[in-house]
């Protein structure tokens, strides 16, 4: 009677042993499949990756000095002359010296006509460019178009382009997912055709290197080093999802954080650059800032998503559309606005003259507005730049204000007829100073109430008595921003 249970137990044990024995083979099969995927992608894309060798001629003029004893003989004159004779000292002659400075980067061939996408900083202000393919063929190339704001450039092979030129395909960077496996290909430290592997670490990143640049980087932990710049970041379908551009490091080498320009940004720019054209960008005509938890509470918002409007420029597309100071732009042309960076890039990526729909939050209610974008001129400041809002806390407000006069308006570059409370003194380490207020700032609102002078300012502060914070709209150097001054410690 006990035979059946014993046989059943033995069968279970045997089955488990068989499964355990099979697991290594199954794991190896999975690993080999992943291995083949990497190999396949590398074999597909590497032929279209080029190493870019650039050369810049630096000209310097240096004085060419005379021989050491030349002045000695010049002072004592000829032997037949009994009296010493001093000649006027001659200015040293200038001689031109030339230095050849070399650089290296990477690029990716994008079409059969020989156009190559790379970074602007790889080919900026260089005199000669040569590109080397994976099969060792080398060609001279020339810069066709550049866009420093996105750090993109298009170069082209000179002369006759080979019919068998390999090309790569741009993918959809909007479809990338955090955690997705990727390969970076380039020439780090001059080691051509190097392939490194990693994952997508994040999207929508900025290096904060310059507020003038349009950054929407894909972050990756695939190793990127000097020389990788301009090379592709590729997904497992063998499509380019980014152009490697920068690294975050304190040692000058890869430290686990690399950045790539999204392929969709490349798609929108490279055809114009390939024609030698300049990138034309839309302009809304507002100054915006991110929403932190304090501003969220002040404006009674549900989330910190969106872009807070702190200034609307006169006669701008935003003013004509009805955008007001204090509006929160939450959607742009049907797409949700995460923050200042997202809106700024979206506006810049829209052609001037385009009509766009804006959804703004005003007094807790959504409003839909239509704006026809203007054009951002190359010499104009970026009007969608974020206005910085500093955070701090202290025991008193710590400022002295006065009315605007003709003299102070001129001194602090204020517009004619501008009204508000002008900051004349700021107490060191006071809450106003810690919130970012400086001498010459013009306070135009307090807690959303208009301020035309010191009396309005004092009246608004009285109404704010007992509150932990005061919300101010402050204008400085032609740009407005919301500032929260914390007063909690003053209680």
In short:
This protein has 491 residues and is α+β, with helices and mostly antiparallel strands. The protein has four domains: 41 residues; 218 residues, Thrombin, subunit H (Beta Barrel), CATH 2.40.10; 96 residues, PDZ domain (Pdz3 Domain), CATH 2.30.42; 92 residues, Pdz3 Domain. The protein contains ten helices and 26 strands.
Task: Please list the strands of the largest sheet in the order they lie side by side.
Answer: 1-2-3-6-5-4
The total beta strand count reads 26
How would you sum up the major sheet? Answer: 6 strands, antiparallel, barrel
Rg over alpha carbons: 32 Å
Task: Report the structural category.
Answer: alpha+beta
Number of helices: 10
CATH topology of the largest domain: Thrombin, subunit H
Mean pLDDT: 83
> Could you name the CATH class of the largest domain?
Mainly Beta
Q: How much of the residues is beta strand, in percent?
A: 25-35%
Instruction: Measure the end-to-end span.
Output: 86 Å
Counting structural domains, the number is 4
Low-confidence stretches: 69-88, 381-395
**Helical proportion, percent range:** 10-25%
Q: Any guess at the CATH architecture of the largest domain?
A: Beta Barrel
From the spread of the alpha carbons, the general shape counts as elongated
Task: Describe the structure in your own words.
The chain is of the alpha+beta class and 491 residues long. The chain folds into four domains: 3-43; 44-76 and 95-279, Beta Barrel (Thrombin, subunit H); 281-376, PDZ domain (Pdz3 Domain, Roll); 399-490, PDZ domain (Pdz3 Domain, Roll). The chain is built from ten helices and 26 strands. It has helices spanning 3-45, 70-76, 120-123, 263-274, 293-298, 317-321, 340-348, 406-411, 431-434, 454-463, and strands at residues 49-64, 93-109, 115-119, 128-132, 138-147, 152-157, 181-186, 194-205, 217-220, 232-235, 240-247, 258-262, 281-283, 286-289, 307-312, 328-332, 335-336, 355-362, 365-372, 374-376, 399-402, 421-426, 442-446, 449-450, 469-476, 479-486. A six-stranded antiparallel β-barrel has the order 1-2-3-6-5-4. The longest helix is centred in the N-terminal third of the chain and has 43 residues, at 3-45. 36% of the residues are buried. The model is unreliable at 69-88 and 381-395 (pLDDT under 50).
